[in-house]
Write a structure and sequence with these properties.
The chain is mainly alpha-helical. It contains 6 helices and 2 strands, in the order βαααβααα. The protein has a two-stranded parallel ribbon with strand order 1-2. The protein is rod-shaped.
């Protein structure tokens, strides 16, 4: 049975202190004992990370689009804010691309 630890040395140390079988395996053959340890990546188990990132990127896109609409409404006929509109459009397209990258499924091998 594999021992599950998070992605840190402190978790490995705690697992070694609490598991006498794992201690014995490390004393006899550390390389084989490390094969018995499964390291969990917090990104794989904590779905709130992705939810927060998607929420923030979505809010950024919505805020930028609302800002572009307000700039277009307030500056009818004026062209001095074209550079600001270009910057906002670039930021929003980058955020949309990041959202697409996060939400697209990973390819299976």
């Amino acid at each position: 049975m594999k021992t599950l630890i998070n992605d840190s040395i402190g978790d490995l140390e705690a697992a070694l202190k609490n598991n006498t079988d794992l201690q014995e395996k490390f004393k006899t053959n550390p390389v084989e004992a490390m094969k018995e340890v499964e390291i969990r990546n917090p990104k794989d188990t904590d779905y709130w990370i992705y939810r927060i990132i998607v929420l923030m990127l979505g809010l950024a896109v919505i805020t930028i689009i609302a800002g572009l609409i307000l700039i277009a409404y307030w500056n009818e006929g004026e062209s001095k804010n074209n550079q600001l509109v270009t910057i906002f459009a670039t930021i929003s397209s980058g955020a949309i691309g990041a959202l697409a990258g996060l939400l697209s499924p990973t390819p299976r091998k």
